[in-house]
C-alpha cells in the first residue's frame, strides 16, 4: 500500500539504504501508474460531463487523491535523488569547485557565504566538508569596525586547523576603510603578524598583507622567517601615521626576503610612495612573471635595474617616479633591456607639470626597452602631460615590431599626426583608446572603413572631425564582417565605439542609422563637443 508512506518523512536529507531505495523506486512506479489511471478517469468524467455521478469517486475526492499521489512522487524523488548517493570523493571535488572561485571572509558576512553552509545540510555533507581540507585553506581576515580582531584570529586559526598540517594556505588582511585607525592598530597588527603570518609561514602560497611600516620591516628583515612555498605576494603599507616619514631604507637593514621566499613569481607593491627604495637583492626578481606597483613610484634607474633581471616577466605595471635630477638621467640604462615574454605593460607617470620634465623622464625611460611580444600597452599620467615626447613612444613601438592588440593612452597629449602614425604602425590593434580629447583624422577613418587600416579593430575611443565618415565606417565594417566579400581581408565587427565629434548636430537620418547599429549589438556612445 502506498498510503503508509509519509511524504514529509521522505523529503529530508537522510540517505536510504540500497534496499530501501529499491522499495521506494517500486512504490514510485506504482504511484505513477495510479496517477496516470486517475488522470484518465478525471479526463473521461470531464469529457462526458458526468463528474461526481460515479458512486466510488466524487470530483473533490479524486483531486485530493491526485494531490496526495503527486506529493508522494515528488517526495520519493527527493529521497532517491542521485546526489545523495555520490561517492564522498566526488562530493568533495564538487564542494571544492563550488567554493574555489572566491576566498572565505572571516567572520563570514552571511550564512551561505562560507563552507560552513555545507555543514548545515545533513550529517553526510558535514562529514565530507570537514574532511575536505581544500575548503579551509583560503581566508580573508576581516579587519573592520565592530569586529573583535582577536576573536577573528581565533577563528582563522580554527579554520586553518581544519585543513590539516600540510596543505598550502592563503591569507589576505582586508583594508581598513575608515579614515582614522583604532588606537591599538599597531599592537593588533603585531599580534596578527606573530599568530597568523609567522606561525604559518612555511605553508603560505599566497599572501595579501596590509600592515604598518614596522610590521613590514619585520616581515622583510626577520631571518627566522622562511616562506619556501610562497609564490604570490601583495604587500601594502597601510596609511597608519601616514604623516610621519620614518622609512625603510637599504642602509637600515640587509633584506633577506629574496632568500627566504625563493619561489615568488607574482608580486604587487602598494602605497609605498617614496618610503621604499628598491635594490637588486630586495626581491627574487629573476623568477617574477608578474610585477605590479600601485602608488609606489620608483626611479627610472631602479626600474631599469629591476627589468634587466626580470627576463621572465609576462605582466608588468610600473609607477615612474617624476622626481628626477641629473644624476638619475645619467644612471638610466643605456643598454637594451629585452623582455621577450612580456604580454602586458602598464606605465603610470607621476606629475609631469614642470617644463621639460617629460622630455627628461620619458625618453631615457623608454629608450632601452625592447618588448617584441607585448599584447597590451597602457600609458597614463597623473596630469594631462602636453610635453610628452611622442616620438619616443613611436620609436619604442617601431623598434619592438610588436603585434599589439590593445593600446590605451590616457591624460597624455597626442597630436593628430601621432594618432595617425599609431594607426599605421600597429595594424594588429583590436582596441585603440587615445581618449576623446585626441583627434583621429577623417582620412584615417576612411582607410579604417575600407579595411586598409586596423582590420581587426573592435573598440575605438577618440575624437572625430567628420560624423558621417565615422557612421559609414561603422556600417561598412559591420556589413563586411558579416558577409566578407574578399577572403583576403577579414574585418572584425565593431563592438564598442566612444566618439566625441565636432561639427554639426547629428541629423535624424544619421541617428536612425546609429540606432540600427545599436540594435545589432554595437555599443556606440557619441557626444558633440565644441570645435
N/C terminus separation: 87 Å
Beta-strand content estimate: 15-25%
Any low-confidence stretches, pLDDT <50, length ≥5? 249-254
Helix-residue proportion: 25-40%
Mean pLDDT rating: 83
* Major beta-sheet overview: 16 strands, parallel
> What is the tally of beta strands?
18
The Cα radius of gyration reads 33 Å
Helix- and strand-based class? alpha/beta
InterPro entries: LRR_dom_sf (IPR032675)
What features would you describe in this structure?
The protein has 531 residues and is an alpha/beta fold. The chain is built from 17 helices and 18 strands. Helix 14 links the parallel strand 13 and strand 14 (431-433). Helix 2 (18-48) packs antiparallel against helix 3, helix 6 packs parallel to helix 7 and helix 15 packs parallel to helix 16. It is flat. It starts with 6 loop residues before the first helix and ends with a strand. InterPro entries: LRR_dom_sf.
Amino acid at each position: 500500500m502506498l498510503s503508509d508512506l509519509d511524504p514529509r518523512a521522505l523529503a529530508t536529507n537522510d540517505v536510504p539504504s540500497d534496499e530501501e531505495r529499491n522499495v521506494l523506486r517500486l512504490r514510485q512506479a506504482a504511484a505513477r501508474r495510479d496517477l496516470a489511471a486517475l488522470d484518465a478517469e478525471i479526463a473521461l468524467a470531464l469529457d462526458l460531463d458526468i463528474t461526481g455521478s460515479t458512486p466510488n469517486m466524487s470530483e473533490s475526492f479524486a483531486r485530493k487523491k491526485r494531490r496526495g499521489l503527486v506529493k508522494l512522487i515528488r517526495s520519493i524523488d527527493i529521497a532517491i535523488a542521485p546526489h545523495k548517493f555520490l561517492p564522498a570523493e566526488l562530493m568533495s571535488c564538487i564542494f571544492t569547485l563550488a567554493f574555489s572561485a572566491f576566498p572565505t571572509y572571516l567572520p563570514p558576512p552571511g550564512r551561505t557565504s562560507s563552507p560552513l553552509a555545507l555543514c548545515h545540510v545533513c550529517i553526510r555533507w558535514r562529514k565530507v566538508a570537514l574532511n575536505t581540507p581544500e575548503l579551509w585553506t583560503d581566508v580573508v581576515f576581516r579587519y573592520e569596525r565592530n569586529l573583535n580582531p582577536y576573536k577573528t584570529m581565533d577563528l582563522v586559526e580554527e579554520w586553518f586547523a581544519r585543513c590539516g598540517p600540510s596543505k598550502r594556505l592563503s591569507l589576505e588582511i582586508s583594508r581598513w576603510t575608515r579614515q582614522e585607525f583604532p588606537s591599538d592598530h599597531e599592537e593588533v597588527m603585531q599580534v596578527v603578524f606573530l599568530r597568523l603570518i609567522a606561525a604559518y609561514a612555511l605553508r603560505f602560497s599566497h599572501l595579501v598583507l596590509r600592515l604598518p611600516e614596522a610590521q613590514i620591516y619585520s616581515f622583510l628583515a626577520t631571518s627566522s622567517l622562511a616562506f619556501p612555498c610562497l609564490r604570490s605576494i601583495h604587500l601594502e603599507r597601510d596609511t597608519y601615521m601616514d604623516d610621519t616619514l620614518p622609512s625603510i631604507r637599504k642602509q637600515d637593514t640587509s633584506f633577506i626576503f629574496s632568500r627566504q621566499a625563493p619561489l615568488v613569481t607574482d608580486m604587487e607593491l602598494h602605497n609605498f610612495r617614496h618610503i621604499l627604495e628598491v635594490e637588486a637583492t630586495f626581491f627574487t626578481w629573476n623568477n617574477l612573471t608578474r610585477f605590479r606597483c600601485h602608488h609606489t613610484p620608483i626611479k627610472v634607474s631602479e626600474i631599469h635595474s629591476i627589468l634587466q633581471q626580470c627576463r621572465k616577466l609576462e605582466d608588468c605595471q610600473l609607477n615612474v617616479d617624476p622626481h628626477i635630477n641629473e644624476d638619475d638621467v645619467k644612471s638610466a640604462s643605456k643598454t637594451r633591456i629585452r623582455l621577450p615574454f612580456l604580454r602586458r605593460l602598464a606605465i603610470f607617470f607621476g606629475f609631469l607639470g614642470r617644463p621639460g620634465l617629460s622630455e627628461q623622464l620619458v625618453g631615457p625611460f623608454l629608450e632601452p626597452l625592447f618588448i617584441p611580444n607585448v599584447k597590451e600597452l597602457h600609458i597614463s599620467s597623473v596630469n594631462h602631460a602636453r610635453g610628452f615626447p611622442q616620438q619616443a613612444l613611436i620609436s619604442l613601438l617601431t623598434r619592438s615590431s610588436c603585434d599589439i592588440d590593445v593600446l590605451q593612452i590616457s591624460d597624455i597629449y597626442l597630436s593628430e599626426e601621432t594618432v595617425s602614425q599609431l594607426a599605421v604602425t600597429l595594424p594588429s590593434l583590436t582596441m585603440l583608446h587615445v581618449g576623446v580629447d585626441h583627434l583621429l583624422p577623417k582620412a584615417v577613418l576612411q582607410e579604417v572603413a575600407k579595411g586598409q587600416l586596423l582590420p581587426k579593430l573592435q573598440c575605438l575611443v577618440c575624437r572625430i572631425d567628420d560624423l558621417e565618415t565615422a557612421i559609414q565606417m561603422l556600417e561598412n565594417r559591420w556589413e563586411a564582417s558579416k558577409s566578407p566579400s574578399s577572403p583576403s581581408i577579414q574585418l572584425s565587427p565593431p563592438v564598442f565605439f566612444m566618439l566625441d565629434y565636432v561639427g554639426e548636430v547629428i541629423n535624424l537620418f544619421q541617428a536612425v542609422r546609429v540606432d540600427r547599429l545599436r540594435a545589432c549589438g554595437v555599443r556606440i556612445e557619441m557626444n558633440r563637443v565644441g570645435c
